Amino acid sequence: MASRKLKMLIVDDEMEMLKLMKEIFELRGWDTIVTPVGASVPVILEKEAVDAVLLDIKLPDGSGLDILKEIRKKYQKLPVIIFTALGYQESVVNEAMRYGASGYVSKGIAIQELIEVVNNALLK
Fold first, then answer.
1. pLDDT (tens digit, 9 = 90+) per residue, 13-25?
2. CA separation (Å) from 77 to 63, 68, 80, 115?
3. Per residue in 78-111, is it b (16+ CB within 10 Å) or e — as a string?
């Protein structure tokens, strides 16, 4: 019996970043779902058994922090890794962690570091 692939939901408004992240995770054996808007996240989570979420902070239809809060109301244990081009901003990181983020990475991070953050979040 084959084991089920892990499934990653990637939420980012930059189409090139979505393509890149999809490729990175699929090359590592993940199934991926991508979306450029935060409003689709609750719908996707209702329909799909997702193992982790890679969530941008700045989205065209709102804040990733608001999406994180919504996710936590229903899916307390789902790993959500905040992923942003804002760089390390202590206030944003602290707020994300306070709302239950499982990790934080900046865009432009080395691929291996990204994978480590995701793997660590899965172990929590």
1. 999 999 999 999 9
2. 21, 12, 9, 19
3. bbbbbbbeeeeeeebbebbeebbbbbbbbbeeee
C-beta contacts of 27-30 below 8 A and 24+ residues apart: 28/115, 29/5, 30/5, 30/6
Strands (E), 7-79: 7-11, 31-35, 52-56, 58-59, 62-63
Who contacts 97 (Cβ-Cβ below 8 Å, separation ≥6)?
104
Beta strand pairing call for 103-106 and 7-11: unpaired
pLDDT in tens, 50-101: 999 999 998 999 999 999 999 999 999 999 999 887 655 778 888 898 999 9
